[in-house]
């Protein structure tokens, strides 16, 4: 027994020494190398540039190809370059690069660190969901059933075609007693709808609507919107002029709203970081940002890279927010629960 005990203690005591020896050798290798400050200057410069872009993205002009909005749409993804630069800095033994990496790490966590934690609660007086169903959806009936299975009290659908509307109406009829379709957007509700009307977002056809939902805890103004798509073109950059004009018109309509409780559901073709949506986002809170779990990316469904499908609220308290499983659309449905 004594020998066994001695063997165990000897083995346990030698492991820290071996680990300590490795660390000391690594530290000695760096400490004795005068080139650690000269190497990796390009890596350090890249790290500083990424940090400055994240920190000063609002100063990137939109005058050339809407470069500022394009950057802001995918801003969180700049963080993926940090681990790559970290590996390069370590391999190159560059102290300069390692110190420079402090800037993008600090800026990224300051801007997006709150999104990687789970802030969702339980319960809620009202559950809502929104989904761009895709005009070319091969299975509208299945998509409708999938969204209804979320348990939402109110469902908004965008990109509805005239030929597919009857299919959605039939599939959702058993769950939702009330509904209205205006142009290519629609709302289905378990509670009565009043004051339903299209909202003019300067397109010449209807892609937005407003209705009052009479919930058991009072009235809520519900807006459904599908802002114009944006394109990335080699000759024109990030073309979003029509989207931006529609966002301004939608923001004006929401600003004129008389009810204190407002919920906006829809595909805004832009993220909360995109300055072009400021007319809308400055008035409303994102349920994902306030009570979501993670980034909640919704597009494209096959590999979500951005949350352009939004649930924004005013006068109600977000409780939880999440994405739903993939349907036949190229977007993921998103849902949220709120307290009235």
Provide the fold topology.
Layout lengths: L1 H30 L9 H15 L11 H7 L7 H12 L2 H6 L1 H11 L13 E7 L7 H9 L5 E5 L6 H8 L5 E5 L2 E5 L3 E6 L9 E8 L2 E9 L4 E3 L3 E3 L1 H15 L6 E6 L10 H4 L3 E2 H5 L17 E6 L2 E7 L10 E6 L1
Parallel strand pairs: 1-2, 7-10
Antiparallel strand pairs: 1-14, 2-4, 3-4, 5-6, 6-7, 8-9, 10-12, 11-12, 13-14
Helix pairs in contact: 2-4, 2-6, 7-8
Q: Could you explain the architecture of this structure?
A:
This protein folds into two domains: 22-115, no CATH class; 126-339, Deoxyribonuclease I, Chain A (4-Layer Sandwich). 36% of the residues lie in helices and 23% in strands. It is built from eleven helices and 14 strands. α2 packs antiparallel against α4 (81-92), α2 runs parallel beside α6 (102-112) and α7 (140-148) packs parallel to α8. The longest helix is centred in the N-terminal third of the chain and has 30 residues, at 2-31. It is elongated, with a radius of gyration of 26 Å. Residues 1-14 and 234-238 have low confidence and may be disordered.
Strand line-up across the major sheet: 3-4-2-1-14-13
CATH class of the largest domain: Alpha Beta
Number of strands: 14
N-to-C SSE string, H for helix and E for strand: HHHHHHEHEHEEEEEEEHEHEHEEE
Q: State the end-to-end distance.
A: 69 Å
Largest sheet: 6 strands, mixed
Oligomer: single chain
What would you call the shape?
elongated
Percent of residues in helices: 25-40%
Please count the helical segments.
11
CATH superfamily of the largest domain: Endonuclease/exonuclease/phosphatase
Indicate the low-confidence ranges by residue numbers: 1-14, 234-238
Structural class, judged by helices and strands? alpha+beta
CATH topology of the largest domain, which one?
Answer: Deoxyribonuclease I, Chain A
Q: What's the Cα radius of gyration?
A: 26 Å
Strand content: 15-25%
Organism: Streptomyces alboflavus
GO molecular function, one term: catalytic activity
Protein name: Membrane protein
Pfam family, one: Exo_endo_phos
């Amino acid at each position: 027994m004594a020998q066994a005990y001695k063997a165990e203690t000897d083995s346990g005591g030698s492991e820290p020494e071996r680990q300590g020896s490795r660390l000391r050798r690594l530290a000695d290798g760096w400490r004795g190398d005068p080139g650690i400050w000269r190497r990796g200057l390009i890596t350090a410069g890249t790290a500083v540039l990424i940090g400055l872009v994240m920190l000063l993205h609002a100063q990137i002009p939109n005058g050339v190809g809407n470069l500022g909005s394009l950057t802001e749409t995918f801003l969180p993804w700049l963080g993926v370059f940090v681990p790559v630069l970290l590996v390069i800095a370590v391999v190159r033994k560059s102290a300069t690069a390692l110190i420079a990496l402090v800037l993008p790490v600090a800026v990224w966590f300051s801007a997006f660190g709150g999104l990687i934690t789970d802030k969702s609660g339980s319960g809620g007086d009202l559950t809502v969901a929104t989904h761009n169903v895709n005009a070319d959806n091969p299975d509208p009936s299945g998509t409708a059933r999938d969204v209804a299975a979320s348990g939402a009290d109110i469902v908004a659908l965008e990109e509805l075609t005239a030929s597919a509307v009857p299919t959605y109406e039939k599939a959702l009829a058993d769950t939702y007693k009330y509904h209205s379709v205006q142009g290519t957007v629609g709302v289905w509700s378990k509670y009565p709808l009043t004051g339903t009307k299209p909202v003019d977002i300067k397109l010449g056809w209807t892609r937005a609507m407003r209705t009052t939902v009479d919930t058991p805890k009072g009235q809520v103004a519900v807006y459904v919107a599908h802002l114009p798509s944006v394109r990335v073109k080699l000759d024109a950059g990030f073309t979003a002029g029509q989207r931006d004009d529609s966002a301004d018109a939608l923001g004006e309509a929401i600003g004129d709203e008389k009810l204190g409780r407002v919920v906006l559901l829809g595909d805004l073709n832009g993220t909360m970081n995109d300055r072009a949506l400021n007319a809308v986002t400055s008035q409303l809170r994102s349920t994902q940002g306030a009570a979501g779990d993670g980034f909640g990316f919704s597009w494209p469904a096959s590999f979500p890279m951005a949350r352009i499908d939004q649930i924004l609220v005013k006068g109600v308290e977000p409780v939880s927010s999440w994405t739903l499983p993939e349907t036949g659309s190229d977007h993921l449905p998103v849902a949220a629960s709120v307290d009235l």
